[in-house]
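Table 4 source record.
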Amino acid sequence: MIKSASPVFQEVTRELQRPESRTRAKLLLCQVIPTYNEVENIPVLVERIESLRSNLPFDLMIVVVDDNSSDGTAEKVKELAGKFGNIKLIQRPGLMGLGSAYMDGFAYSISNFNADYVGEMDADLQHPPEVLSEMIKKASEGTDVVVASRYIPGGGASDWSLGRRIVSRGANLLTKIFLRVPVKDATSGYRLISQRAINGMFEYQLSSKGYSFQVESLYVYKKLGMTFAEVPYNFETRKAGETKLNTKEMWRFFRTTIKTGIFGLKKKKPQ
């Protein structure tokens, strides 16, 4: 298994492993799944993803980024990797944030496997993997950013409380006002992104290592002129474990969205 001790994504892949060869008969999707104490959910999720694999028009690899879970999540992923031949595990030394987990997973996927697309998906079973089939269809058409959306016809979140609905709608309204990204569900963490979009994003200085990475990255994709599409999905109820989204992350999200809308994001200085 792969272990990463780097606090940032830029150097993570240099010491992991050399690129693996693969056939080019199909495009490759590396589905990145951050985990922290998801030992009950991850085997169910992986089995559901693997059941789709043979019918997908893309080759599929699962890249789990674990932040030193205390419940045995990493060990469970190792068991699953022994059962299936397309699972990689990046182990990090502690909680380093959702955005940083995705950055590490993206960099690893492109550096080591030259992934044509990378994916974002929660480990808590709230993102139904069966929607991947429709998302991949959109990606197959050449779309750079495919977002699974709760806010287009056919999508939804039927089990949410009124308070959760207000927070989600408010966050999307704020994003629409300040960032003007061309999607209805800007806070969705269920996405497929092309390699060229990711490579372009790596050129920018994103401030967030947490949840607000989702809107910062969308802002960059829009700035880069990437193409967008949405497919509907129904946000499912968490079956086990605890949510990682807290009040602190929510306030950071609002602050980052407003700051990005006013000041934008700068490119990194050439090294």
